[in-house]
Specification:
Blueprint: H1 3-17, H2 21-34, H3 44-51, E1 55-59, E2 81-85, H4 88-94, E3 101-104, H5 110-118, E4 122-126, H6 132-138, E5 146-149, E6 158-159, H7 166-176, E7 181-185, H8 200-217, E8 224-227, E9 233-235
Parallel strand pairs: 1-2, 1-7, 2-3, 3-4, 4-5, 5-6, 7-8
Antiparallel strand pairs: 8-9
Helix pairs in contact: 7-8
Length: about 250
Amino acid sequence: MEYAEWAPFYARIQREFGFSMDRERAAADRLHDLLPVAGRRPPLPRIAPRLAGRDVIVVGLAPGAGAPPVWRLPLSRPAPAIVAADGAAARCLDGGLTPDVITTDLDGPVASEIAACAKGALLIVHAHGDNVDALEEWVPQAEGDLAGSWAGPPSESLLDVGGFTDGDRGAYLAAHVGARRILLWGFEFSSVEYASEPNPERKLAKLRWARAALTELARGPVPVLTWRRDATLVPYAAGADGSRTQ
């Protein structure tokens, strides 16, 4: 999705949560300064070869989902790519899988994301108004391929192709660079356990927006499917909301 299409959607999110665009921009500027020179190169030409023309498994953090069982998918050429959303990188590594791409705002088990980056994953770090401290702590520690994103107009070094949370940002990214299909594994939008943090109601509100963002994406040309734990694939719009369908 182009930024001009996504911006009105994100404006609604900003109004609900009271996000300050000035703080978002300040965080984006700080991320740009922290990225190594190689990490400031245009992101999309580096991302596209990893995902374009492939089935892309976007891995979320639904309770009990674990790493995606890629062996249960039919053999295909090229093989599926994996985009891990934040802490799902740890689950992938635990399952012997190195993600091709990680989307993260650095609020999960970041050490696993840094380790995956060192193993070859492209780490896309998202800047927002509340994570400057995490940016300063973790970005200098990453060794490998880095890129940056934020919630405002894209620049040469920071992308924004749509999406709100780490998971749906990964799906939007895959669609933007020409994925063949997007398979959502481990996505959950209504579990209290999934939202176990100091402000679970706020987290659940964010997940509702993530669900809405994916619904919007599923209206586009790239098929978006929920990969259920019984190995079936169903169109996202047919029911991807919560553990009842996984």
